[in-house]
Write a structure and sequence with these properties.
Length: 335
């Protein structure tokens, strides 16, 4: 156990030395629980090639994020990892990612999780030709609880992506999707989420093909005063590329409950400094009526940097999502 702990601390130190303590403080758990997730999630033990450009999880190539979701009455914390991100062989990288997913999901995921996961995977040709930075990423709640797996949809001929994604979604979820999505958006990824005692959740992420009003998407929750205010407050008169805005929807695999929706904005594109982010997050939490995410102190101290910020809605409820990455590396977008 002592040797294993030493290796894990070394891994965390290579990419984000403060991560175990930050995550533990936010989640109310021991740093060892974070280190165990790093181990189970197959986080690479070496920094990889110069520039670290082996992961697309962050714009700087690093393979870790910390997601804090603040809602009314509480917050939740999730560790996001790009498993085996330095593995040069695409198929072996995917295999190691699936092994990590199996370790993390063994106690929580229903049988449909594995079936849906396998159905969304690309084949070897697609991996080698179109996914140089990997095809799957993992999310694990702290302390050990729910599991999520995110799978790239950006493979195969572009005209085949929406039909494939929509067929997959309909196979595992009976909630109908707006017919306007293929016209207005480009699929980015799909995801599955499972938690003990809860039904499987199916997610779809996409980017806009062209500027359009959010209400044109036909997704409940996006055409709301909160969403309009959120976008206006964060973007203002700044220029944000369409690739810097990600829209997602989420539905239960076992019922036709209302679709949950989320807008994520790239923090790198918004280019606020750490002090501005700290003030903005406090303002956003207050205006939206959610808990303080608790991340401002870490941003101000230079222990973390913002990767993305998101607004989620399910019914009348809002949630604020703050995605943190290491503040110790810099780099440009990964294509």
């Amino acid at each position: 156990p002592g040797a294993a702990r030493s290796r894990l601390v070394s891994v965390a130190g290579a990419w984000w030395p403060e991560l175990p303590e930050i995550a533990a403080a936010l989640a109310g758990c021991a740093p060892q629980a974070v280190e165990e997730l790093l181990e189970a999630g197959a986080v690479c033990r070496e920094a990889g090639p110069a520039g670290g450009r082996t992961s697309s999880l962050n714009n700087d190539g690093t393979p870790l994020q910390l997601s804090v979701t603040a809602a009314r009455g509480g917050r939740s914390v999730r560790l996001l990892v790009d498993p085996a991100h330095a593995e040069p062989d695409a198929e072996r990288r995917m295999e190691r990612g699936l092994e990590a997913c199996a370790r993390l999901s063994a106690a929580t995921a229903p049988a449909a999780f594995e079936v849906a996961l396998r159905a969304a995977l690309p084949d070897g040709v697609a991996l080698r030709s179109g996914l140089p930075y990997g095809c799957l990423w993992l999310g694990a709640e702290l302390p050990r609880g729910g599991i999520a797996v995110y799978l790239s949809a950006r493979w195969g001929p572009s005209q085949e992506r929406w039909p494939r994604v929509l067929e997959w979604f309909a196979r595992f979820c009976s909630t109908p999707l707006p017919a306007s999505l293929p016209e207005l958006g480009e699929p980015a990824s799909v995801a599955l989420a499972a938690a003990p005692g809860a039904p499987l959740r199916v997610k779809l992420y996409f980017r806009l093909r062209r500027p359009c009003p959010l209400d044109a998407l036909g997704l409940p929750g996006l055409a709301s005063p909160e969403a309009d205010w959120f976008l206006a407050r964060l973007i203002g008169d700044r220029a944000l590329r369409r690739s810097g805005l990600l829209v997602s929807l989420e539905a239960s695999a076992e019922s036709q409950l209302p679709i949950g929706c989320k807008i994520d904005l790239c923090a790198h594109c918004l280019a606020y400094d750490s002090g501005q982010w700290a003030a903005l997050i406090a303002e956003l939490a207050s205006e939206l009526g959610v808990e303080d995410p608790g991340v401002s102190g870490f941003l101000g101290a230079g222990q973390a940097a913002m990767a993305f910020i998101g607004l989620g809605r399910a019914g009348a409820s809002c949630r604020l999502n703050c995605y943190l990455k290491t503040a110790g590396r810099r780099g440009g977008p990964l294509g």
